[in-house]
Each structure stands twice: as C-alpha cells, then as structure tokens.
Design a protein that fits this description.
24-stranded antiparallel β-barrel; 28 strands; 3 helices; 545 residues; two-stranded antiparallel sheet; globular
C-alpha cells in the first residue's frame, strides 16, 4: 500500500507539473519503450519445454521529465508472463522505478529509486540490465555535494529492489573524490592528472539464527587512485569487507578483499592495456540468504572481453565472487595506410590474452572456532585453472564498399566451476570467424558471417552462418543457422535455424523472427543468466523519443 501511494503521488506530481510547464513551452519529456514477446512451441529434441501460456512477454516503458532544477521519472514494467529464462517472481506488472531529483547550486538530492556506482563498483554498483534480468536499484535518498571545485561527495541510503518488493537489508554508503588538478589553477596546468577516491558501504539486516551468530552490520571500504599523463594511464582500487557469512560463501566468517589494477599507454595507431585482478570472498548482498544475481550490492569487474560473435561467446566467463586471480593484456595496432599489409585504408589488429585461476588456499578445520573456512595467499596463483583465452582479430577495408573482419580464439574453459555443473572435463576450443560487410549503395548493404568452433569435449564441433540484407527502405531480412555437426550423439546433431525480418527508422526498431534457440548462458561483464532452449516466433519492438 505504501508503494502504491508513493507511485500515485509521483505520477500525479509529474503529470500536473509537466503538463503545466509544457503548456508554457517549458520542460522536456523523454522516454523509451521496449517490448519482447515470444510464442513457444515444445521441442523435446532440443529440450524446449511446453509453455502453458503459449506466448510470454516482457515490457519496459520509461518516461522522464526535466525542467530546470527538477527532474522526475517513472518506469512501467509488465511480465505477462515473464519470458522463459527469467524468474517467475517477475510475473505481473507495476511501477518498480520512480524518482524525483532536485539540483540547486552545488547540491543534488534524489528521492525514490536511483542507480549509483562508487569507483569501479567493487563495493557498490546498482544498475539495470534487462537482458540479464538484473535490477538492484536502491529505493531511498541520495545526496551529491560539491563543496568546492575538485571535491565531490555522495551519500546514499535505501533498500534494494527484489522483484516487486524490496530486500530485507538496509544499504548505507558514502563516497568522496578529490580531483587534485581542479583544486588550484596552477595544479590544473600540470601534465600529470591525479584523482583520489574513497568509499564506505554498510548493510544492516536483523539476525536471529539459532546456529550462526550472524553480524547484523557489515561494512566494506575501498580506496582508489587514477593517474594520467599524456598517453599513459594508471588506475587501481583496493577493497576490503569484514566477515559476511552468506549463502554464496557457505556461511563462513572470513573477511573479503579485492584489488583491481590497470595500466595503459595509447597513441595514434597503438594502445596497450594491462589489467590484474584479485578477488577473495567478495560476495556482497543486502540479504545474506540471496543467491544468483539477486540483491548484489557490488559488482566485480570481469577481465575477459564480452564476445559479440555467437560461437566465440559459446563458453563465456562468469566472475567468481568466492575467489579468483586474473590478468588480461590487450594490444591494438593500426598498420599504416599505403603499406604492404595496411593497404589503401590501413589494417586494424587487436590481440588480447586473459588468464584466470583459483586462489592459492589452505582449507581450515575451524568450524567450531572462528569458522574462517580457508586461508589464502595474496596474488598467488592457485592450481585450478578457470579460464584462459587468446583472441587475435584483424579488420581490413578492401574498398569503400567492402570490409572484412577475421577473428581467431583459443580458449580453455572450466565448465564445472564457471557454470556450477559437475561431471564435465575441462573444455579446450578453437573458434574462427569471418565477418564481411558489402555496400551495394548508400542504403543497400549485405552482412555475412561464417564461424566455426572445434573442440573434442562437451558437445563437439559447431558451425554458424549468418546472412543479413538491409534494404534502402529501412527494411531488413536475415537468416542464420547454428549446426552442432560434431555432437557425439548423432541424433543431437541439430540445425538451430532462424529467420528474422524487420523495420528500422530512426529510433524505432521492429524485429520479427522464427526459429530454434539452443540452451546456453548469456554473460555481460561477467554477470550471467541461463538461456533455455526454445522454438517459436519472437517479436521485439523498441523506440525512444
């Protein structure tokens, strides 16, 4: 009832205020809508279940109004019922996101729902990612204060969204940032730029467990520094969390820590980026009983790249909050124009290597004492490999009308650890991609992809082919086929064929498709959800104004 009253108040305020200002020719309204619907057919061969409703749909409708110092917004969501792969706890409709924001001089106050991030997000990041079914927004109050030039302060308090309700824990936090070069005009002229930052976040959740003496207040702190000078850049953040037993770490009382370090150099035609990361027991949720992606307070940055190609993303990496050691190196180089390998337009080369392993740990038999669970050695590589990937990509423009991208991936993947399954051996795979674009005219283009995945483990070899033609009248038509020709079981060598067509004009995109979708896992930035197998029609409509 309380949330309904808040919603009605916000809607009434926004509608009357916006209406009055629009009549006076003031203010701006922006919005967006997204509709994703699917009609399902059962298919026992690919494991697509029967869906009683036959058709399911997710809808998101955002409306924002800004006038001077005041802005307000609201988002309507409807899951009728939620698409397969999303929690059934989303079923229904309502207004889970609504806010009013006021700015005056050097202060900004937000009441209602908001998204916020401190530093890289290792102790606080709230965000909305509908593709993953993630929305951990805070509902409460946020204050931003800029007392003087170069000093930026934030304070937050609120409860996190949990489907149509809110989590049991209360989240409080403070972040401060000092831009050294903005403090004084003389410092502003320095070639070296320095930004210092620090954060503290705590959660409160009542505890009355008869077995565990759970801490009701859990705090986490982090410090960070950014240094740049010309083409050089360096960033590091170090985080620490006190003992926080929860469902993810098996209710152990060991403190958590994490460090992210990134160094890079870039100039015209060349860049090098090196990243190292250490994560140890850094699951941080506002409800100690929460699992999966629910009620995450923090975000642990993923090192491996988010692959865009279908087969290159076949075995995606999910960040391991209980512990990992990782490194990533990426080199980009543009072979100059009019050289032997660069040709008339130059050639872009991108090489990236990622390696992630377990921590070096010693299990402790201390359940009746401190119950730390294990001890670990800082930045020392463990014996269990989680993920190892080498990517080599070349982009070359042969003419004004034709561009080709070639990519090769060699990957090691520990499926037991990453996907939480058992009985799999480590998977070693090789993926090759050819991606071509040809323009027949300024408005008629053909896009084609050919991909192959080779492995002796899991489901064996795959091949993927795609062709998409864009017409000059904003229409497009495409077809793809993903074929598991190397499955050890001949009856499971299936063609996952899909045909799509649609219309695109400015911000309006309408796509209609029919085909089969294999079961898999979708990861964005190391956060993942399972994608179930499906067979049927799909419809997607997006627009913004």
């Amino acid at each position: 009832m309380k949330n309904i009253l808040i919603t009605i108040t916000l809607l009434t305020f926004s509608a009357f205020y916006a209406g009055a200002q629009i009549l006076n020719g003031e203010g701006q309204i922006h919005g967006s809508i997204e509709i994703d619907a699917q009609f399902y057919k059962p298919d026992s061969l690919i494991g697509a279940p029967a869906v009683p409703e036959k058709m399911l749909m997710n809808t998101y409708d955002q409306l924002d109004y800004t006038n001077g110092r005041i802005s307000s917004g609201i988002r309507y969501e409807a899951y009728q019922d939620a698409l397969e792969g999303y929690s059934s706890q989303y079923d229904g409709s309502g207004f889970p996101y609504k806010y009013i924001d006021y700015k005056q001089d050097n202060m900004e106050v937000t009441v209602g729902n908001y998204y916020e991030q401190f530093g890289s997000g290792m102790i606080l990041r709230t965000y909305w990612q509908p593709q993953l079914g993630v929305d951990n927004s805070l509902n409460g109050v946020r204050v931003k204060f800029n007392p003087t030039k170069g000093i930026y302060l934030k304070g937050i308090i609120g409860n996190q969204r949990y489907f149509w309700g809110q989590g049991a824990g209360l989240v409080r936090g403070f972040d401060g940032e000092i831009n050294i070069n903005e403090l004084d005009s003389a410092l502003g002229n320095m070639k070296t730029k320095i930004i210092l930052g620090g954060s503290f976040v705590s959660k409160y959740q009542a505890a009355s467990d008869p077995t565990y003496n759970f801490p009701e207040n859990v705090g986490a702190g982090a410090g960070r520094i950014t240094i740049t000078n010309g083409g050089f850049s360096f960033y590091t953040e170090d985080a620490y969390k006190i003992n926080d037993p929860d469902a993810i770490n098996g209710n152990i009382f060991k403190p958590g820590d994490a460090i992210l370090a990134r160094a890079g150099y870039s100039q015209k035609g060349f860049s090098l980026l090196l990243t190292g990361e250490h994560i140890d027991n850094m699951s941080f949720k506002s409800d100690r009983t929460a699992t999966a992606n629910n009620l995450d307070i923090n975000y642990l940055p993923a090192l491996p790249r988010d692959e865009t190609y279908q087969l290159a993303a076949f075995y995606p990496y999910a960040t391991q909050p209980n512990g990992e050691e990782g490194m990533d190196a990426e080199l980009k180089y543009k072979i100059p124009k009019k050289s032997l390998l660069g040709g008339k337009y130059g050639t872009d080369v991108d090489v990236e290597y990622s390696a992630i392993t377990s921590l070096d740990t010693i299990n402790l038999n201390d359940q009746t004492t401190t119950d730390q669970g294990y001890s670990s050695k800082f930045f020392k590589v463990g014996q269990t490999g989680y993920f190892d990937n080498l990517t080599f990509e070349v982009q070359h423009k042969f003419s004004p009308d034709f561009k080709l991208i070639a990519q090769y991936d060699h990957e090691f993947y520990n499926k037991d650890v990453i996907q939480g399954e058992t009985g799999f051996t480590n998977i070693i795979s090789d993926v090759g991609v050819l991606d071509g674009y040809y323009s027949f005219s300024s408005s008629h283009t053909l896009h084609m992809e050919l991909q192959g995945l080779s492995t002796k483990q899991d489901q064996g070899n795959w091949v993927f082919a795609l062709a998409e033609y864009n017409f000059g009248s904003d229409w497009f038509l495409g077809a793809l086929d993903e074929y598991n020709y190397g499955d050890p079981d001949p009856t499971l060598r299936i063609h996952y064929f899909t045909v799509t067509g649609g219309y695109m004009h400015n911000a309006l995109h309408i796509t209609l498709g029919y085909g089969k979708q294999r079961a898999g896992i979708l990861c964005i930035g190391g956060v993942c959800r399972n994608i179930p197998a499906s067979d049927g029609f799909t419809l997607s409509i997006t627009n913004s104004f």
